[in-house]
Write a structure and sequence with these properties.
By secondary structure, the protein is an alpha/beta fold. The chain is about 70% helix and about 10% strand. The chain has 25 helices and twelve strands. Strands 1, 2, 3, 4, 5, 6 and 7 form a seven-stranded mixed sheet that branches. A five-stranded parallel sheet has the order 9-8-10-11-12, with helices on both faces.
Length: about 850
């Protein structure tokens, strides 16, 4: 009974929606009615598939095809009415609806042809032809119409075939009747022939009877003779039977005798077999005794061997445990030592780079205030010395990161020519100072834009070129780039740095790339340097897939060379990246309220004056530790926090965690930028884990600070977004809706930040939301293409450019996903696609949430 009720419940929606399908044509429905009926129809199709009702699947799939065709027609009509608006997105939606209409129609046709539902086949063919025509595929539309017409002709042909079949049946019946008449005539003739034969036989019989009717005397004589003959025969038969019985008895006696003899022979054979079995049993018992003795002997041997093995194994185990304890202790000491080393380097880095940041910043500020010529000369000298000291610090940090396996290479589009020009500009001052030539040459067959790490390439060439200039007193230095080979979308480039300097002895080349090593111990005093440049350069070249080769002759010069494989880059992506970095100026600071936390008063002064020089309208407040920062956040509202990491009382990491977890919702989402002198990956990851949104290394460049502020506050200008009209949901006040929904846990957007940023100005808030929504289609399209090509560089670029917009819409989790994806793309990890799936779900959900508010 339960199964019957369940079947009725499953089939009732099919029956109900079938009636709706028959009553309403989708082309007669409005957009709202189409949207309302689409859900029930989709569920009805699912129910039909579950119940395997092919008739219902045919009807429902055809009806859904008509619904999507009607939607496409309404979009097409809306495009004709609104010619001024950009219709790229509508065209995409119209194509999507037409594709779905054709898919559902084809599905209905397949099932209809299987079950022979001609009426619904005709409807589905008609809808499919209209969708194909609307999509521009006229040839396919005509073929579909031809199939529909063939369906009609099929019925006419069937009627004609039925008439022909009837005629053929009538002809067969007539032929059968003729055949039966002929057979009947033959049978009648045969019966007449038999009658004549019977008559003849009757005549012959009568003649025989006449012959038989002889005299009775003759018959009597014959019968007597017969009876006598029978009596004689019976006597002979009895005699023969008696003889046969005697013979049979004698044969049986002989057979019995033979059988007795065979029985006696069998009994003898059995006795012999029993004797043989007894002998075999005795032999088996003897063998078993021998086997038992051997087994006992082997058992004793194995016991002795096992006891010996246990003693040996115990000794080995004791030795292994003791050695393992030693190894564990050594590992713990090494890890502790490495941890102390990293901590020491991090602390030293911070303690040195922090005052260096103040020195470089103040020099920059003084140079902007038009100093006297002699003052400018002193300032440039100080700046040069600071750069040398910073270079030494960077060498030590790079070596530490390489040894810890934490140095990461970027993978971005860059210009080879621009990088070589930067190297030449950096080294030209030193070359001119020593009166040396510095010549660069690039193979004209090289592609200018490739994908790699321009900063590390710059570092390698400056290290090798600087060394060449350092040890050359006359002549010059040449930096040459040659194309080795090109295959598919990759190029192999050979870099050669040649000098006419003092050269290197052959016995010193083997140790040339060791840490803190120079050719002669006096070179450090004479030429300066840490002895780390070549070691770091070789490590970097190996990370890029190559190795450095050295050719040198004492007194004649030295040539360092290496080959790197690059993917050919995109000039368009390079221009977009440069535009993103350069098209943000001090205007993004206008009106911002910024809290700056740093325990170094000089750093506070540098950051504060830099911000005010770039934008006089920016408002700043200064504190000297994390505790003061949290107290100021509790009292006032800020758009941004610039937080130093290492501070007394409460450091920047602790302060960020406190802000994220203990402050109210309208304050705990303020963007926080880490101001850190450490550039180790572990320290940067710790900043993100504490709740910070970005970081700026010390000493900072003004454009780095401005670009980072623009990124986390969302004050970048959207590039190339597509306009699209979205209908309002009829809400009277966007602010009311945001106040109601801002704290809902299942939403990806949080309007608290935008409301605060726009100072509760509803028009401004709608404007920002509309800008975000208009940028989404282009973002989705670009991400779809990048994901299809598995282009990590392009994925990272699009995600990076969209992070400020997610921050503006309060999408904290989405922004954190974007940061994680950016890191995964740099390491070319396949895990990026799992995170991308979640990110795209967030983006699609945000579009639905914000469309109701726009």
């Amino acid at each position: 009974m339960k199964k019957i009720l369940l079947f009725i419940l499953l089939c009732f929606p099919l029956f109900l929606h079938a009636q709706v399908n028959e009553d309403k044509d989708p082309s007669d429905l409005s957009l709202a009615e189409l949207a309302a009926v689409m859900g029930p129809e989709t569920r009805a199709l699912k129910t039909a598939e579950d119940s395997k009702d092919k008739a219902a699947i045919c009807r429902t799939a055809g009806y859904l095809g008509g619904i999507y065709l009607a939607l496409a027609k309404q979009i097409d009509e809306s495009e004709e009415k609104n010619q001024k608006a950009t219709n790229a997105i509508k065209d995409k939606e119209e194509t999507n609806f037409l594709n779905k209409s054709m898919d559902y129609c084809k599905r209905s046709i397949d099932v209809g042809e299987e079950i022979g539902d001609v009426d619904h086949l005709r409807k589905s063919y008609k809808t499919l032809s209209a969708a194909q025509k609307m999509s521009g595929n006229l040839a396919a539309s005509m073929k579909t119409l031809a199939k529909m017409m063939a369906l009609k002709k099929g019925k006419l042909n069937a009627n004609k075939e039925n008439e022909l079949e009837k005629k053929q049946i009538e002809q067969v019946h007539s032929r059968r009747e003729d055949s039966m008449r002929r057979q009947q005539q033959i049978a009648e003739e045969h019966l007449k022939e038999q009658a004549r034969t019977l008559a003849q036989k009757q005549y012959q019989l009568d003649s025989a009877n006449k012959a038989i009717s002889m005299t009775e005397a003759e018959k009597t004589n014959v019968s007597r003779a017969l009876r006598k003959t029978q009596a004689d025969l019976s006597q002979e038969k009895q005699t023969l039977e008696e003889q046969q019985t005697k013979l049979t008895l004698s044969e049986q006696e002989k057979a019995l005798q033979a059988t007795n003899l065979q029985l006696k022979e069998s009994a003898l054979q059995l006795q012999q077999n029993e004797m043989q079995l007894q002998k075999s049993k005795m032999e088996l018992q003897q063998n078993e005794l021998k086997i038992k003795d051997r087994y006992l002997d082997l058992q004793r041997i194995f016991i002795y061997i096992g006891l010996g093995g246990l003693l040996i194994l115990s000794g080995f185990m004791f030795f292994i445990v003791r050695e393992r304890k030693k190894a564990v202790q050594q590992k713990l000491r090494a890890e502790r030592s490495e941890k102390f080393k990293q901590q020491f380097i991090s602390n030293i880095s911070h303690e040195i780079r922090t005052p260096m940041n103040a020195i470089n910043g103040m020099i920059g500020l003084l140079l902007q205030k038009n100093p006297r010529p002699e003052q400018e000369s002193y300032l440039k000298g100080i700046n040069k010395s600071a750069d040398i000291l910073l270079h030494v610090i960077n060498d030590v940090l790079d070596l530490s990161k390489i040894e810890a396996g934490k140095l990461e290479l970027e993978s971005i589009d860059f210009s080879i020519a621009e990088t070589i020009n930067q190297v030449k500009e950096t080294l030209s001052y030193k070359a001119e100072e020593k009166g040396l030539q510095l010549v660069t040459r690039i193979d004209e067959n090289l592609d200018d834009v490739v994908v790699g790490d321009p900063y590390r390439l710059n570092q390698i060439l400056i290290n090798l070129g600087g060394n060449a200039l350092k040890f050359t007193e006359k002549g010059g230095v040449h930096i040459d780039l040659d194309l080795v080979k090109k295959e598919d979308d990759h190029v192999y480039i050979k870099y050669s740095i040649s000098d006419t300097g003092i050269g290197i002895p052959a016995d010193k080349i083997a140790n040339l790339f060791e840490n803190f090593t120079q050719v002669n111990s006096s070179d450090t005093r004479k030429y300066g340097g840490t002895g780390l440049g070549l070691s770091i350069s070789r490590h970097l070249v190996k990370m890029m897939g190559g190795d450095i080769a050295v050719e040198s002759t004492v007194g004649s010069g030295t040539t360092f060379s290496f080959v790197i494989k690059y993917a050919i880059g995109s000039a368009k992506r390079l221009e977009e990246r440069i535009a993103v970095e350069q098209n943000v100026d001090g205007g993004v600071l206008s009106g911002l309220r910024i809290l700056i936390a740093d325990d170094n008063e000089y750093n506070l002064l540098v950051v504060d004056e830099t911000l005010h020089l770039l934008s006089p309208t920016v408002f700043t407040e200064l504190v000297v530790n994390g505790q003061e920062a949290t107290e100021m956040m509790g009292k006032n509202d800020y758009d941004l926090i610039l937080m130093d990491v290492q501070m007394p009382v409460m450091n920047g990491l602790e302060a960020s965690k406190f802000i994220r977890t203990n402050l109210p919702a309208d304050k705990n989402k303020v963007p926080i930028i880490a101001f850190t002198a450490s550039v180790l990956r572990a320290d940067i990851d710790e900043c993100f884990q504490s709740g910070m949104n970005a970081y700026v290394p010390k000493p900072f460049k003004p454009w780095q600070l401005i670009n980072t502020i623009a990124e986390v506050t969302g004050k970048e200008r959207p590039i190339g977004y597509v306009q699209k009209e979205y209908q309002s949901n009829g809400a009277d006040s966007i602010i009311a809706v945001m106040n109601d929904n801002g704290g809902t846990s299942d939403k990806v957007t949080d309007m608290a930040y935008l409301r605060k940023f726009c100072e509760d100005d509803e028009k401004r808030m709608k404007k920002y939301i509309k800008v975000y929504l208009n940028a989404l289609p282009a973002f989705n399209n670009n991400m779809g293409n990048a994901i299809a090509k598995k282009d990590f560089v392009e994925i990272a670029l699009h995600v990076h450019s969209f992070k400020p917009k997610w921050m503006m819409m309060g999408m904290k989790q989405t922004n954190e996903l974007g940061i994680k994806i950016d890191h995964l793309c740099k390491s070319n990890s396949d895990n990026v696609f799992e995170n991308l799936e979640v990110l795209m779900e967030h983006v699609n959900k945000s579009a639905k949430e914000l469309a109701e508010l726009s």
